[in-house]
Amino acid sequence: MAFLIVVVLLAAVVAIVSRPLRAGRQEAPSEGEADVAGLEAARDAKYREIRDAELDRRTGKLSDADWRVQDRALRAEAVDILRRLDELGYSREGAPADEE
Known about the structure:
This protein is mostly helical and 100 residues long.
């Protein structure tokens, strides 16, 4: 009888402790949502790269000529990412474009 009570209590503790882990599971994002999330992350990373290059130029780590070349390339990549986001129907704020 004592063994049965211990097993029931142990099962209850496991159920309570694992509940947040089970509740945290969500459906996997659709392929389009995953693409958008990846592009948004790439966009944010590209913006950081542009800011970092500007900071490097200001602090003297990059010459003006080197910075211009790098800045043009980074901005072209950022424009490509934004264009791909627009093609998927998302605005730059991340909401579907038809909801604005």
